[in-house]
Amino acid sequence: MPMQQTIARFVGAAEWQRLKWRKGRRVMQSQQCPICSKDVQPNARYPRYVCDACASRAASSDGRLLDFSNVDISGGFVARYSDTGELYLHHECFIDAVKCHADEARFGGIVIEAVGL
Fold first, then answer.
1. Structural domain of 57
2. Domain contains 17
3. Any domain includes 11
4. Which SS3 state, helix, strand or coil, does residue 32 take?
5. Quick check: is 91 in a domain?
6. Partners of 22 in the β-ladder
7. How far apart are the C-alpha atoms of 95 and 117, rounded to whole Å?
8. Is residue 32 part of a domain?
9. What is the pLDDT of residues 14-43, one digit of tens each?
């Protein structure tokens, strides 16, 4: 199977159409938040990352708001309930009933991606 068809199957036909060639590699031209469809900065590593406004509504399965952060300056991942500061021991969260996954981003910070779409 040709490389382009393999990539198209992996990222999905709609995402493939938003890609263009730069220096022999495909790069994203545009990207939208999968929850609210707001334009976000294109990021091929995180094609389903949610915008900051949607990320602020991340909640546990029982509806409690969550805060995500790095453990310290060297990275790591920690999640806490917003109301009590109690540790939340999962990466799974929900935004507007859409299942999402929060994790440490490659170069620090936190990224939340929709997985339930």
1. 48-114
2. no
3. no
4. strand
5. yes
6. 25
7. 12
8. no
9. 555 555 555 556 665 789 999 999 999 999
